[in-house]
């Protein structure tokens, strides 16, 4: 049942984003930033974590979950390091995910040898 919940929630998030892309003039980069910011705000308000606990990977894998994890890292680091935690916390919380994306992206480019379209 957890897989079904994650699939449905992740799918609904994607549907909302697709509607945004089809019916507004927002570019994909701005929509991505919007998702991260909304995830951070929902995490700060305290709404996102209960939702993520219920929805599982359907809520934590999309960019909303990335924004929430950034917020949690900043909040934790502010408690430990004070003002400097604002700058340090997001990097600490997201470093593993970003490193994984870079490493696997590089490995994919080595294996599949991408080339420019002509």
Automatic annotation (TrEMBL):
Residues that span the membrane, as ranges: 6-24, 31-51, 91-112
Designated name of the protein: Stage V sporulation protein AE
One Pfam family matching this protein: SpoVAC_SpoVAEB
InterPro entries named in the record: Spore_V_AE, SpoVA
Keyword hit for Transmembrane helix: yes
Signal peptide start-end: none
Keywords of this entry: Membrane, Transmembrane, Transmembrane helix
PANTHER family: STAGE V SPORULATION PROTEIN AC-RELATED, STAGE V SPORULATION PROTEIN AEB
Coiled coil: none
NCBIfam families to which the protein is assigned, alphabetical: spore_V_AE
